[in-house]
# Entry
Amino acid sequence: KKHRLNQWLGDYPSEDFIREDMARRAAYVMTYGGRVAAYFALMEGEDPTYAVITDGKWRWDGPYCTVHRAAVGAEYRGSAMARELMRAAEALALEKGVFCLRADTHRHNEPCKAMLRAAGFTYRGNIRCDAEGDPRRQAFEKLLKGDGAK
# Structure
């Protein structure tokens, strides 16, 4: 809201979303000094939201993981915690034998887009999600180094 984005307003992500992430064994926290500093969900498998992409196309047609609900605590912003979060997501994907990561964000979320680009993601096109407000999202993809990457 502070950045005038129509994203993550209201109760999203709610405790129910986080509990669902936990039930799927897709919830990850990062700690610093014994305190929770960041959270993300890493979903393995096809994401129905990514089935239709406009104004571009996916580069990878094999299995992928999706980073969702990535957030860094306010007191850790500017500390490189977001960079570490993305490195952790990559390492987890590779542990699963997956060589591609995908993510999306609100089209006006410049800090998130900058973070994704800095982490080596490439803008691939636009998707639509089931979000309140503006459902349009910009989609990003990163091919990871490994035996399966093209």
About this structure: The first strand starts at residue 27 and ends at 32.
